[in-house]
Amino acid sequence: RPEHGESVNISGDKSSILDVFPELRSAGCLPIGAASFSWSSDSDNYVTRFPLNGFCKMSTAAIFERLFQFGFDIVSSCGGGSAEGAQFSEYILKRNSNCTQPISEQNYIKTEKL
């Protein structure tokens, strides 16, 4: 569930986004080969600043965990803010070309006993 006031927007190839977030397919949010909403780009295959957590109700941490499980790595990031207190972070992620299925959590997440 998204944190209060949190907005997560994602840009990229629609088919890759649907691979990682299949719940968007059932919502009919990102039809492949058809124009979607006003926040999509002119391309039928790419979307710009899609409001991800507005449709899949995931927190930022859960979204990043899902992306990491599907072989994405953060390659760059930046952030900023305004005098009014608004803050933002942007991340550039790259998908390992060999990873098209989720990585098993058993192999991905290191757990330690407390």
What would you note in describing this structure?
There is one protein chain. The chain is an alpha+beta fold and 114 residues long. The chain has five helices and four strands, in the order E-H-H-E-H-H-E-E-H. The strands form two sheets. A two-stranded antiparallel ribbon has the order 1-2. A hairpin with a 5-residue loop joins strand 3 and strand 4 (87-95). It is globular and about 40 Å long.
Coarse shape: globular
The main β sheet shows up as: 2 strands, antiparallel
Report the span from N to C terminus.
26 Å
Report the count of strand segments. Answer: 4
Averaging pLDDT over every residue, what do you get?
75
Concise synopsis of the structure shown:
With about 110 residues, the chain is α+β, with helices and mostly antiparallel strands.
Topology:
Elements: E1 9-13, H1 14-20, H2 23-27, E2 46-51, H3 53-56, H4 60-69, E3 72-81, E4 87-95, H5 105-108
Antiparallel strand pairs: 1-2, 3-4
Q: Which features does this protein show?
A:
26% strand; two-stranded antiparallel ribbon; 26% helix; alpha+beta; disordered C terminus
